[in-house]
Amino acid sequence: SAILTLFYPLNYEPHMNPEDEISKILTELIALPSSFPPGDTEAISAYTAKRLKKAGYQTDIYSRSPPINNVVAKMGSGAPSIVFNAHTDTIAIGDDAEWETEPFSATKIDDRIYGLGAGNCKGAMAVQIWLAEEIARRGGPNSGEVVFTFVGDEENLGPNGLCYLREEGIVKPDVLICGAQTQLQAIFEERGVIWVEVTTTGMSAHAGEPQNGDNAISRMVRLINRLERNLAPVLAKRRRGALCSTMNIGIIKGGINTNAVPSQCRIEIDRRLLPEESIEEAVSEIEDALLGAKEPRDTWSVNLLTGTKGFSSPIDTPSVSAFQDAITNITGEPIVDVVAIGASDARYFAEDGIVAMTFGPGRAEDGHKPNEFVSAIELGKAGLIQLSVVSEVLGLESG
Known about the structure:
Elements: H1 2-6, H2 18-30, E1 35-36, H3 42-55, E2 58-65, E3 68-76, E4 81-87, E5 90-91, E6 107-109, E7 112-114, H4 122-137, E8 145-151, H5 162-167, E9 175-179, E10 189-190, E11 192-201, E12 205-206, H6 216-236, E13 239-240, E14 243-244, E15 246-254, E16 260-261, E17 264-273, H7 279-291, E18 300-308, E19 311-312, H8 318-331, E20 355-359, E21 373-375, H9 376-393
Parallel strand pairs: 1-5, 4-8, 4-9, 9-20
Antiparallel strand pairs: 2-3, 3-8, 6-7, 7-21, 10-19, 11-17, 11-18, 12-16, 13-14, 15-17
C-alpha cells in the first residue's frame, strides 16, 4: 500500500484504496461459478451488468448461444473508442484434493488472493470493474468512448464471446485492451492458435489374432512419430524475437476394448502460430508432413477444428505511449518484454488494423492450475495504470 501511495497519478485522489476495493470485487467474482465446461456465464454476467448499469453505463447483455452471456457497457461517444475486455469463464476444477483452499471462496494469505479464476481471468476482470466505476465517478471521458466487455466462451476458444461481439459490430475498438496475466506489462503481439484433429482408421479383429485386423492406434503412432521427427524440429527454429512456433498433442483417443484390434483413433494438436504464419499454411504443413509416413491415404485425415491468427500491433501510437509511461510511473520499474503463453480474444481483431494488447496482474504460468492466485498489490497497480491511460487518451476529471 505504501508503494501504491508513492506512485499514484498526480491527479488521483483515492476515495478508497484501489487494492482493497478491487480485492473485494474479486472476492465476489470468485464466489460466482463460471467454469467451462459447461461455460455458463449467466450469473456472473448479471452481477457485472447490475454494477455497471448502476454506475451509469449504457449496459446490455448479448448472447448467441445461451447460457454464454456477454456484457457490454458503454460511456461517452465518438472516437477514439477504447474497449476493455475480460473473459468471465474459467477452467473447471480437475481434482478438489489438489486445492489447499476452497476454489469458490477467495482466501487471502499475505499478499495473495487464492481462488478459481483469481489469476485467469477474474483478477483482471475485477480491476476492469473497478476502473469502470472510477471512470464513471469522475463523470466519464471528456472525449471519445470507453467500453467494457465481459465475455464467455474464451476457455473454449469458442466464437460466442468477443468474436461474436466483433462479428455483429457491437464493439468497434480503436484500442483494445484484453485482461490477462502479463506481470503488469502491456503485450502488443501474440501468437495465433489452431486446434487440428488427425484421425486414423483400420479394421477390427480379435486381439487373439491381431494379424487379421488393421490397428488404427499403431497407424496413429507412426503418424505421430513422423510429426515429431519431421515437423517439430522445423517449428523449433521458427522464431520472432522471443516468440516461437510450437506444436503439442493434447488429446489421444482410440479403441473400445483391450481384447480387440482398434479400428479408429484420433488426436488433437494445439499449434501456436507466429503473427506472420497463416492458418491455411499451418494445416497444410501438418498434412504434408504426414504424407511422408506413406500410410494409405484413405486411412487418415486432417481436420481444422478451430483457430485464429496471431496479431502484432503498431507501437508508435498515443495509447501505447500512455501505457508505457503509466507502467514505469506506477510500478517504478522499467518496461520489460513478456511473452504471452496463451491466446487472448484480441486475436479476433488481428486483421482490423487496430491497436490490440493484453494487460493485467499476475503471471501466465500461475493460471490454469490448482491453488491459483493473484497479488493484491498488483491488482491495485493494474487499476491505477489503466486509469492513467484512460485519463491521458480520453481525458478524465481529477478524483
